[in-house]
Specification:
conserved putative lor/sdh protein from methanococcus maripaludis s2 fold; Elongation Factor Tu (Ef-tu), domain 3; alpha+beta; six-stranded antiparallel beta sheet; 424 residues
Amino acid sequence: MRAVLARGLTTILGTIAARIGESRAWAPGIAIAALALGACSKASEAPPPPPLQVSVASPLAMNIVDWDEYVGHFEAPQAVELRARITGVVTEIMFEDGQEVRAGQPLFTIDPRPYEAQLEQTRAQVAAAEAALANATTVAARSEQLVKNQAVSQEEYESNQAQLRTARANLLAARAASDNASLNLSFTTVRSPIEGRVSSRRVSLGDQVSAGTTLLTTVVSLDPIWFVFDGAESFYLKYLREAKQGLRGSSRTTQNPVDVQLSDETGFPHHGHMVFVDNAIDPGTGTIRAHATIANPDHFLTPGMFGRARLLGSGTYKALLIPDDSIVTDQATKEVYVVGQGGAIVKRNVEVGPEIRGLRVVRGGLAQTDLVVLDRLNQIQPGMKVSMRKTELTIGTNDTKTSPSVSLPQPSTATIPPADWASK
């Protein structure tokens, strides 16, 4: 069209120049204008630019499982308050505050001398009771022969038999008192009932302690250790329904895996399994308490530490995965671009799930045969024609078993240590 107009305009300009008689003077200008118009027409006939090239890939289909995250803390399976079982004076403390102790290790000594004397006294009472029993036995046997010969009265015979029974009972009582005295003497040495870590001493040498009331120290077990958390009722219902459908075993009967992350870690390097789910939901909070057991051979995990746990939340199912960078967020809507028929861009609304090893789970809105656009997302729009460079998606390695990176707190200040620092 532009070429036709240019030719027409050239003809008109030539005609005008001829009529005004200045064809020679105006001819160069007219020729230049005609050439310019002709050049424009040739430029307008240049081929259009090639379509934008984008990288595309089909979603990666894999069998995965979901994990649910909870915040909780570590607790010692056994936490013992050591209290004095006898009354007396502390004469010896046999541990350093905070040290690790073994089961049966002596920790305190309470003055044993009064209890040693009491034990000796009860042993003497046992000896006296044994002598009395021996004498009563002899008298009873003699009176039994005499009563047959009618040498003693029946009344005296029965009295001798009663004294024998009394002597036997007295011996039993004396022996029980001796056992109790021996037990009290053993309580003068206070031992750790479990293996674990002892707290600080709560009494000092020379302190008077009372039986059953005075707290001496506490001991907690460390290996294994519990991770305790509260789960929402909605998750509890989900687990019940999955167990009923055979998709995931109940944590009451199945050792579902649990991974734990500490506050300064980026991975989940501490591994264990579920061992307990409570029997009721707390109506005040709408949560139910549960705990997992975690191996702690190096005693690094400490009761009271907070952490984040992820619990196996589903059975195995097939899911589609795409890179997070290929997902566009439009307010509350998640969208991806796919290449449709004829190389045209099509926008799809998708439902996304959790992230797994660098890829994002897509729960709905995509098919495995779709070609998802991976780059140049800000240069394309629906309906635009593009050329494709096909690639294949790969999933990253599982790094949860490796040592996690940690975030260290910054010190408040720093100093130069003295020369004799190493000797202190």
